[in-house]
Amino acid sequence: MYTFLKPIVLCLVFLGLPVAAQYLPSYSSVREVISIHVNKDGSSSSVMEIKRKVETPQGIDLLGEQRITYNSTLENVEVLEAYTLLSDGKRIDVEPDKIRTQDDVDADGSSIYSDSKVKLIIFSKVEVGATIYYKVSSEQHTTV
């Protein structure tokens, strides 16, 4: 069906030109574990562990800040641990002032009458080859 393309591809190969670009994701997931415990009364608690490696410069933008959205009326969220692991093995812990609680805003920028909050984790020294890690606990104290 596409036999007319064969000579063109062969010419590109002989000239040393790339025929197809290889896909490289912005980041890769190293570890993602979520443990959930549901109580008889319907309340629950969970622990989420996320470890992701930056593969490209675009991954720096995607992983440099992590947002955990939750309903502040129904649950409490706490960041237990967060750090950047550089490719040389050096660990850089996220400082407490780089973990912030903010109002979650809608697409139009409003947050009025909303119980939705965001825990924002701002990682330092995020670069290609680095790994970010965070562990977050959530306690849903009021059932839906």
Protein model, in words:
The protein is mostly beta strands and about 140 residues long. The protein has one domain (about 25-140): Immunoglobulin-like. It is built from two helices and eight strands. It has helices at about 5-15, 55-65; strands at about 25-40, 45-55, 65-70, 75-85, 90-95, 100-105, 115-120, 130-140. Strands 1-2-8-4-5 form a five-stranded antiparallel sheet, covered by helices on one side. The protein has a three-stranded antiparallel sheet with strand order 3-7-6. The longest helix is centred in the N-terminal third of the chain and has 11 residues, at about 5-15. It is globular, with a radius of gyration of 22 Å. The model has no long low-confidence stretch (mean pLDDT about 85).
Number of domains: 1
- The strand order across the widest sheet is 1-2-8-4-5
> What is the CA-CA span between the terminal residues?
57 Å
CATH topological fold name: Immunoglobulin-like
**Rg value:** 22 Å
How many helical stretches?
2
Q: Helices and strands: which structural class?
A: mainly beta
The percent range for helix content is 10-25%
Could you say which overall geometry the principal axes of the C-alpha atoms support?
globular
Major β-sheet, in short? 5 strands, antiparallel
| Low-confidence segments | none
What distinguishing features does this structure have?
single chain; five-stranded antiparallel beta sheet; three-stranded antiparallel beta sheet; mainly beta; 144 residues; Immunoglobulin-like
